[in-house]
Amino acid sequence: MTITNKLLKRQLKKAGIKLGTAPDKESFEKFLSLVENSYTENNDTRRMMEYSLDIFSQEMREAVDELEVAHKEVEKKDKLMFQQSRFAQMGEMISMIAHQWRQPLNFIGTTTAAIQFDIFFNKLDKDELLKHTDNIAKQSQYLSDTIDDFRNFFRNDTGVEDISYSELIDSVLNIIGESIESKGITIIKDLKSKNTFTTYSNELKHVIINIIKNAEDILLENKVQNPYIKITTYDEELHSILAISDNGGGISEDVMEKIFDPYFSTKTKKNGTGLGLYMSKIIVEEHCTGSLQVGNTKDGAEFKILLKYNAQI
Ligand SMILES: Nc1ncnc2c1ncn2[C@@H]1O[C@H](COP(=O)(O)OP(=O)(O)OP(=O)(O)O)[C@@H](O)[C@H]1O
Ligand SMILES: [Mg+2]
């Protein structure tokens, strides 16, 4: 018989037992006591290991709990930041709505004056009056639509929706277009993308507004001659791209590294929250599973939103 177990071999040797020969009583008892000792040692080691394992798993559980708490806090902080940036945007948008309303209100005012004039000089013509009242109704509808757009825009419960880049841009420019153009900034549109996405359309509108507002800010701050904001969309093999560029001079390298950081802002005059691009990045990349990139053209900054072809959330 051959023995391969090293420990057993050692114990046999220590007890003075040779294989193939009958052991005497003393050697056999010595051997038994050696074997018993190793069993006891084994048990002790096992108990020690079980004990360490218990401590280890308890520590692991505590670490997981701590991680969960930290994760919840980050979520809470993000929610607060979301609200903070939304409130800042709301304030700005109210002044934009005022711009958007100016023209239809003027129109209603002058049409009413024209009707009063006709009444006063007894020139009231039924068809003419119908035309005027029809126009007033249309303008009132437009005013009411703008308010609806604005209210929908700030609702929190809006989910995913099928939408194209063109629809997103139209809806954004309906709210802020007039206000930007009233500052002498030309909006150039070159919309070639045909794709639609099933995505968080309302959140994407906020992103587009953030980017356009940033372009407006830099153009005004640098008092740029012939300022423009260019909005381009096109489809590539894997992505559809929405690019927004300006001729405001671009972003320097040291600023570029930080623009997506929370609370980073170079705007001292208007007291920027520095949350616009931070939130935009989270919306595009985490909520809409796309990508938000930045670069400089020869004239200024360019932001690109890339959404996957036929992206489904
Ligand atoms: N088109 C741009 N051209 C040059 N710099 C830009 C442009 N867009 C963003 N930046 C820079 O990125 C910074 C961060 O922008 P972000 O929108 O996050 O905050 P903010 O505009 O400063 O504040 P808020 O969005 O609250 O008004 C800006 O302060 C500005 O320095
Ligand atoms: Mg901003």
Could you explain the architecture of this structure?
By secondary structure, the protein is α+β, with helices and mostly antiparallel strands. Among the domains are: 6-69; 160-313, Heat Shock Protein 90, CATH 3.30.565.10. It is built from 7 helices and 7 strands. The chain has helices at 6-14, 25-120, 126-153, 165-181, 201-221, 253-256, 276-287; strands spanning 161-164, 186-191, 196-199, 228-235, 239-246, 291-296, 301-308. The strands form 2 sheets. The protein has a 5-stranded mixed beta sheet. Strands 1-3 form a two-stranded antiparallel ribbon. Helix 1 packs antiparallel against helix 2. The longest helix is centred in the N-terminal third of the chain and has 96 residues, at 25-120. The protein is elongated, with a radius of gyration of 37 Å. The mean pLDDT is 89.
Primary descriptors:
single chain, 7 strands, 5-stranded mixed sheet, binds adenosine-5'-triphosphate, binds magnesium ion, Heat Shock Protein 90, two-stranded antiparallel sheet, 7 helices, 313 residues, alpha+beta
Counted beta strands = 7
Overall 3D shape:
elongated
Q: In the CATH hierarchy, what is the architecture of the domain at 160-313 at level 2?
A: 2-Layer Sandwich
Mean pLDDT: 89
Based on helices, strands and strand pairing, what is the structural class? alpha+beta
Provide the spatial order of strands within the biggest beta sheet. 2-4-5-7-6
Q: Distance between termini?
A: 70 Å
CATH top level of the domain at 160-313? Alpha Beta
CATH homologous superfamily descriptor of the domain at 160-313: Histidine kinase-like ATPase, C-terminal domain
Small-molecule components bound: adenosine-5'-triphosphate, magnesium ion
Number of helices: 7
Oligomer state of the chains in this structure: single chain
Instruction: Give the helix level as a range of percent.
Output: 55-70%
Major beta sheet summary: 5 strands, mixed
Rg result = 37 Å
Low-confidence stretches: none
Q: SSE order, as H and E?
A: HHHEHEEHEEHHEE
- Annotated CATH topology of the domain at 160-313: Heat Shock Protein 90
